[in-house]
Amino acid sequence: MVHKKVHAFTLSEMLVVLLLTIIVVGLAFSILGLVQRQMFGIQENYEDKTTGNLLRQALWIDFNSHSQIMFSQKTGSIQLSNEMGERYYSFYEDYIIRDLDTFYTDYQLGKLYFEGDEVFGGSIDALELSKDEEDTKRIFVYKKNTAADFMN
Questions:
Q1: Residues 6 or more apart from 84 whose CB is under 8 A from it?
Q2: Which of 1, 38, 48, 135 is deepest in the core (most CB within 10 A)?
Q3: From the CB of residue 112, how many other CB atoms can be counted at a distance below 10 Å?
Q4: pTM here?
């Protein structure tokens, strides 16, 4: 009688392979979680900077295309007007409304200026928006005054 030996792995060898596989898969999922958190952080920063840039661009265009800019302390809004029409900016806690556009941002209305002096209402020619208490993130927008600005 001839005994043929069947080539196979022992139970202990299979357990070692299974344990190593579990460790490798666990590490892969951990690294995947870290990469996903990093990507979400990058995405949030990108969206935040994009919103800030769009707000800055809209303010620059509006400030330099409207001849009269008024701030109403009662409503907390800015009215920009020229011969073609009017535009309004309203400032809230977590967003800024520009006519029908909404900018979801943390920027808050800071100081208002007219001819280099800080004002609290009426005609303005510059404004400052700040994001935090330390003023590390700010938007400063101004326009050059024309002779028509001083005729009112």
A1: none
A2: 48
A3: 21
A4: 0.69
